Amino acid sequence: MAETETTSLTPPVQVLAADGTFSPTASAEPYLPYLEALSDSDHEQFYRDMVTARAFDTEAANLQRQGQLALWPPCHGQEGAQVGSGRAARSQDHIFPSYREHAVGLIRGVDLLGIIEVMRGTTHSGWDVADPRNGNFRPYTLVIGAQALHATGYAMGVKFDGATATGNPETDEAVMVYFGDGATSQGDVNEAMIFAASYQTPQVFFLQNNHWAISVPVTTQSRTPLFERARGFGLPAVQVDGNDVLASYAVSAKHLTDARSGGGPQLIEALTYRIGAHTTSDDPTKYRTQDVTDSWIAKDPIVRFEAYLRNKGASEEFFTGVIADAKDFTADIRARTHAIEDPDLSFMFDSVYSEDHPVMTEQREWLSAYERNMAGGAA
Amino acid sequence: MTLSIDAQVATMPMAKALNAGLRQAMAENDKVLLMGEDIGKLGGVFRITEGLQAEFGEGRVLDTPLAESGIIGTAIGLAMRGYRPVCEIQFDGFIYPGFNQITSQLAKLTNRNEGSMQMPVVIRVPYGGHIGAIEHHQESPEAYFAHTAGLRSVSPSTPNDAYWMIQEAIASNDPVMFFEPKSRYWPKGEVDLSGSAASLHASRVVRTGTDATVVAHGAMVSVLLAAAELAAAEGISLEVVDLRSISPIDYTPILESVRKTGRLVVAQEAPGNVSVGSEIAATVAERAFYSLEAPVLRVSGFDVPFPPAKLEALYLPDADRILEAVDRALAY
Ligand SMILES: Cc1ncc(C[n+]2csc(CCOP(=O)(O)OP(=O)(O)O)c2C)c(N)n1
Ligand SMILES: [Mg+2]
């Protein structure tokens, strides 16, 4: 049986030990200044984000089981990596997600009902990236790795526009792209790093190594630690404990800052674990054992960060308040899921092209007339 | 070739007309970028982009890394950012590494985003045979793209169309597959620089006739015109339609012509199986059935990989193969 871990000589950057005590590794040293800038309310926000995302994710999986959704890809276990990196991005940054970054979407301001709509089958996108309320969080990409090239091209444009590396941290833009360990085998991800290096794009490649690509362990994708590959493309790269939200934040903040200030593309590999199934259609008992999953459950990012906050003296009311708010959040999602209406038949023809198109017009009219006739015939 | 400023009509080969059209589009809109392999310093292996990097700079004409998916995928990202990239694929047979980005991303992004995002990307593809080249350098892959919703696909057959159509393709807010018939890069023709563009997707009768209609796109149009000359000498009058656009196809001139002649022969370099010609044959049968005096006939490449160059003259339809089909149609 294949091993499920690749090993590196340097341990990943970590600031919180498994029990939540603050004990940074030596490798965390360059990142600590980014943590010093955080306030208590920032910490509380990180916790709130993770708990809300977990509750949403659990609710969505339930909705799938109840027949409301065709599919659900859970983010359970990856909240530390997602919230740390998502909170490190600035409002002017651009986020190119894969399909599991629900916590990042939440942080960027997206109404998460949009993800529900995609998984229910009423839309392919769920939210409009052109709407500034969606925080430059682009719709999900389902073809593994494809979005890495879009992010690199976009970052080339940012650079051509002179919208980065001006020295103004309030406006300098960066691009962050999310992808998985399986995606690192795709040509597109590798080509994206090549183009990024050539054009020195203001960009962070954020790799969530959750150890699985459906049923295939990361060791089938790579025998070297994945972040070390990036160095071969000429990208500064670091491996971080993705279940440590503070470490994920600090590492992301530094590399985004470097990317924004002319340092070129960077890669972060966040070590984490997919606690749930790949999607609700998957059966992990066929390919992995519960004891390994249990060992990762023991490293749960939320439990660890809660211990840290409790040690620092966060109040009981704070924790109960966050949980109550998350319940309200999911109740609202549930209610609105039940109210989602199916799109009209013209929807599939409407935006295939940017303007009127003779074939679309003809086929839309034909189908409308056909449906009218069938309805008339049945009446 | 030199052009005086006030020249209205200039004679030039398609290669120069494309170069002039690209230059015009770049001068008009500084969001227009050219991307591709060897297109900058070298001016492209066919020299279509010659001189443009020197004129507009390395920020406008990008010698990219050697990766077709990378070129198209980053062009998509640039289009998201507001640029209008024009990508060159070096040869027809090298488009396949970019197929995924074209069909799953470029073609679908406007639809996926419910119209809030436009994808003004042009992909220039030198295509087709007649140049005696080795494998992967003579293919006609246009049917794959005509089959893909969300893409527009066009192919000019003359220098004048090349000059105007490349500018229209760049002005389109949808992705355009721009198939350049590379065997027609060098013959000269008149380009009306002061004219105006015909609609990018309009097909056009380029020779009128009464006995049969023949239709093609790209390099095959010149073969049809040669066949029509030969037929005329034998007293057979052929009407020739240049498709210009293969997605969408403008059927109006084709149907009007078939209603007049009652006979249709469709020609193409590509293999006939599931091809543009098949689509036209089916559509004309659906819409002009009672006007037809004979079955619609296709003259195509064979359903084989493009053969070694020494066999290309046998593979590619020539005027005689067109006339053989015309004779069969007239025999009904
Ligand atoms: C090009 C492509 N091939 C196959 C698939 C089917 N597929 C969906 S997710 C997945 C595994 C992806 O693994 P990884 O990149 O590690 O991301 P994760 O699901 O773990 O977040 C596969 C094979 C796909 N979506 N796209
Ligand atoms: Mg994975």
TrEMBL record, chain A:
**What GO molecular function annotations does the UniProt record carry, in alphabetical order?**
branched-chain 2-oxo acid dehydrogenase activity; magnesium ion binding
InterPro entries referenced in this protein's UniProt entry, alphabetically: Alpha-ketoacid_DH_E1_comp, DH_E1, THDP-binding
UniProt keyword annotation of Oxidoreductase present:
yes
UniProt keyword annotation of Protease present: no
Q: Say which domain of life the source belongs to.
A: Bacteria
Q: Cite the Dehydrogenase E1 component domain residue spans from the record.
A: 48-316
Q: Which reaction does it catalyse?
A: N(6)-[(R)-lipoyl]-L-lysyl-[protein] + 3-methyl-2-oxobutanoate + H(+) = N(6)-[(R)-S(8)-2-methylpropanoyldihydrolipoyl]-L-lysyl-[protein] + CO2
Q: Which family does it belong to?
A: Belongs to the BCKDHA family.
> What's this chain's function?
The branched-chain alpha-keto dehydrogenase complex catalyzes the overall conversion of alpha-keto acids to acyl-CoA and CO(2). It contains multiple copies of three enzymatic components: branched-chain alpha-keto acid decarboxylase (E1), lipoamide acyltransferase (E2) and lipoamide dehydrogenase (E3).
Protein's name in the database: 2-oxoisovalerate dehydrogenase subunit alpha
Organism listed in the record: Mycetocola zhadangensis
Traced from the root, the source organism's taxonomic lineage reads: Bacteria, Bacillati, Actinomycetota, Actinomycetes, Micrococcales
From TrEMBL, chain B:
Entries under CDD domains matching the protein: TPP_PYR_E1-PDHc-beta_like (cd07036)
Q: Which residues are in the Transketolase-like pyrimidine-binding domain?
A: 12-187
What are the record keywords, sorted?
Answer: Oxidoreductase, Thiamine pyrophosphate
InterPro entries per UniProt = THDP-binding (IPR029061), Transketo_C/PFOR_II (IPR009014), Transketolase-like_Pyr-bd (IPR005475), Transketolase_C (IPR033248)
Write one Gene Ontology MF term: magnesium ion binding
Its cofactor is:
thiamine diphosphate
How far does the signal peptide extend, from start to end residue? none
Please identify the protein, giving its name as recorded: Alpha-ketoacid dehydrogenase subunit beta
